[in-house]
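Hey,

Quick one before I head out. I ran the complex with flavin-adenine dinucleotide overnight. Inputs first:
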Amino acid sequence: MTRISTDILVSGGGVAGLTAAALFGSAGFRVICVDPAPPVTEETADGADLRTTAFLQPSLKVLQQAGLWDRLAPFATDLQVMRIVDAGGKTPAPRITRDFNARDVSSLPFGWNLPNWLLRREMVARVAELPNVDFRPGIGTKSVLTRDAEALVTLTDGTRVSARLLVAADGRNSPVREAVGIGARTIRYGQKALAFAVTHPEPHHNVSTEIHRSGGPFTLVPLPDRDGKPCSAIVWMERGPEALRLAAMPEAEFNAEMTARSGAIYGPLNLVTRRTVWPIISQIAHSFRADRTALVAEAAHVVPPIGAQGLNMSLADLRVLLELCRAAPAQIGEPAMLELYHRRRYPEVAARVTGIDVLNRTSMQGAPAIRDLRAAGIASLYALKPVRKTLMQLGMGARG
Ligand SMILES: Cc1cc2nc3c(=O)[nH]c(=O)nc-3n(C[C@H](O)[C@H](O)[C@H](O)COP(=O)(O)OP(=O)(O)OC[C@H]3O[C@@H](n4cnc5c(N)ncnc54)[C@H](O)[C@@H]3O)c2cc1C
């Protein structure tokens, strides 16, 4: 049986796990990253993740520190304006529109949009550049035994790894979280999200638009032109049976139905990728730490895709963890460090999970009486509410 030791073992090579491997590797730590499912790095391949990620300003620094931003920037679409539309009347026509322009508060856009399959491609390439990062796709975490001095992890190929710190980035059903005995509070909405890309005749002008009616928001996020036409990524949230009906609908009918749901703001929408379906839940682990173990990303928290929070919260987890590891490299994975990690992340994550839960419930009901509150709430998630300039600027990266 092979036995190896490392500073950090990252369990999970999804977008969060690969970012963790690149980030800790770029900082000079010895990293092993494992995932039983090899990453799918082409848009048209089976199993490709057709979601996109809107990275908000505070995530930029993490991507830079991970050596990823230079690779990603050429493919990123600026998100300059966040538009929240209420279409809760008898017809799906837009009734009230609120715009939040990043220009009012910053010289940068409020975020950048990138396809998830492309993120994986660039992240895999980045970790391959780092001699101190050992990425092992096709191999998973099998069992975990934590001791004072180390986490002893047995991999599915029989290798035993002794790590000073085990980073659980192995998703919402995290095997590591289960192995170390941390429970989670889960809220199920009976809701699913369809994620796909469309082209349309009208340009998006780098505006990201969230349209609220009922069942959940319908969000159009800018992408680069495709086949010479303006292009957007769409996340369409609906109650489960309705989402499945839409996913199975013949394409021409689907195009007509989503154009109507969009209020035809960009003219007729034309589907250009597969439709992928994602179950929607809220979840937060009871604790973000165990002996020698830190939970990050969806292993620690899951939120509905409103306000582009999920992965951005995950990168904030990694930023804090890296700061703590750098501040005391000799003590990585020790109880005091992990306690600090938990204390710095848990309250903020818990507040966001609660806030997004409320926004999602109001959007599902389409309740018109609270639409102003909803618009303000969503805008504050994007850190773009002009009247709270100072707070917002703090939220854009200054928070410790
Ligand atoms: C429709 C939709 C749109 C979204 N849009 C945004 C957005 O715009 N902005 C944003 O910030 N967030 C967004 N999110 C959230 C974001 O997509 C997720 O936070 C992110 O993809 C989750 O990444 P992850 O790496 O934590 O989990 P996962 O992608 O689930 O990765 C977990 C990995 O762990 C692996 N694994 C499983 N078992 C083991 C094992 N035994 N050992 C090792 N590895 C294992 C799995 O194979 C998997 O690769 C969106 C989510 C949805 C559903």
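The chain has two domains: 3-44+119-186+283-361, 82-99+188-279+366-384.

Talk tomorrow,
K.
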